[in-house]
Amino acid sequence: MKNMLIKLTTGLGIMVLAAQQVQARTCAPRDEMVKRLAGTYGETRHAIGLARQGAIMELFASDQTGSWTITVTLPDGTSCLVAAGRDYEAITEALPPNI
Predict the structure, then answer these.
(1) What is the C-alpha to C-alpha distance for residues 77 and 55, in angstroms, rounded to an integer?
(2) What is the DSSP letter of 14?
(3) Which pLDDT tens digit goes with each residue over 40-96?
(4) Domain-by-domain residue ranges, the chain?
């Protein structure tokens, strides 16, 4: 699980740069973003990781509805939506080793 989060965080580092450029409807102060995800979708934080330039990646999900959202929060406190979807399922199986 730790390796998966590291790989996910590294991959999202590029998205941090994009998120800095796109601060329209998909970005808001973090506290507003968290309230909206909880209030509208019933999502709570399930995972967190450190990305480049001090940004933080968070995975929010709802165990009841299966919706999920990935956000990146920049050092200035702005959170940007990176991805969202449905059918979230927490798993604990180990990833296969790299070939």
Answers:
(1) 9
(2) H
(3) 999 999 999 998 889 999 999 999 999 999 999 999 999 999 999 999 988 888 878
(4) 2-85
Q: How many CB atoms lie within 10 A of CB 51?
A: 23
* Structure token pair of residue 36: 């909206």
pTM of the model: 0.70
Element (H, E) at 27: strand 27-29
| Residue that the structure tokens 């070939």 belong to | 99
In DSSP notation, 31-93 reads: HHHHHHHHHHH--EEEEEEE-GGG-EEEEEE-TTT--EEEEEE-TTSEEEEEEEES------P
Q: How far apart are CA 75 and CA 65, in angstroms?
A: 31
